[in-house]
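Minimal example, chain plus adenosine-5'-triphosphate.
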Amino acid sequence: MAFLDLINVSKSFGSLPVVEEFTVQIEKGEFISFLGPSGCGKTTVLRMIAGFETPTAGTLTINGKDQRPLKPNQRNIGMVFQAYALFPNMTVHDNVAFGLKVAGMAKPDIDKRVKEMLALIKLDHLATRFPYQMSGGQQQRVALARAIAVKPQVLLLDEPLSALDAKIRVSLREEIRAIQQQLGITTVFVTHDQEEALSISDRIVVMNAGRADQIGSPFEIYNTPATRFVASFVGTLNLIEGKVVDPDNSRIMIGDQDVTLKQSVTAYKPGDTVSLALRPEAGSLAESAKGDTALTGEVISVHFLGSVVRTRMNVAGNTISFDMFNNPRRTSPTVGERVTISFKASDLLVLP
Ligand code: ATP
């Protein structure tokens, strides 16, 4: 049994199922992200952990204790929401002190704990400010301090960065991760931003229509997606259609180009169509690459994105993007040119 256990949890609103047989086992001190598109049920799972929603079926335990009979205030869970939910009429100090007061802590102990928390989020100099006198990023750090001041057994973060601008988002997510690791607090982070999830999680649950499609480390989720949905939702992906010609030798055709896969296709018959996935960063122009597999096509577009140049080419009706690091000494391909990209056969994955 893990620290935070959700086993076959389902939730319906009326006759509408929004979470179905959701199972995830989260270890103590783990940082896990629920990643998925809008409406896939991420917040609903979080709200069930917090006690704001009751599961229709399944079990939910923390440290072996069934949480279902407990009200939200009996669960010892810290929460940070997307909108800055600070008390507007209280100072930073009083916001962070709030939960401690409710818990009946003595004033000197409260002051000591608030001081520690404000030092942790590096805002000790703003203790007397009110929320309206602070930036969004600062307010979210106070919200984080308020949530962890009470030493919750689980910290739930519901898209806490989505209202912030891009630069602050990146620095604050790193700060959250550092604080989480320092305190060893078990954390569930909800996001629809795949880069955010990949960058800070121990593991990611990719959710699709109320179900967990895949649970794994960022590396596993990105490099070995279990389903077509995971492959296309996480990162940019080329989907390429191929025809099996020789299943025993893993040979397929992409248009009139012969490719030998690393993956077995013995489950298919000659003539079957397979969907293949190739990440843009796996391919590079043939003259600069060391791959064992190549595809030739016509360049459709070239986009300069700063550190990388993304080129799209047409190969037998498939649009394939590939990324190259920007190199001022090399000329980029031009639209209409025929180019060959090279990659490792193992980078071309057959999708289930
Ligand atoms: P987002 O990223 O947009 O917040 P989400 O993945 O967190 O999405 P949820 O908020 O969990 O999704 O909602 C999942 C589904 O359940 C949605 O279709 C939503 O409309 C529905 N839903 C959520 N709460 C209720 C409710 N109280 N009554 C009826 N339907 C609800």
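Residues 166-183 form the longest helix (18 residues). Residues 4-233 form a domain with the Rossmann fold fold (CATH 3.40.50.300).
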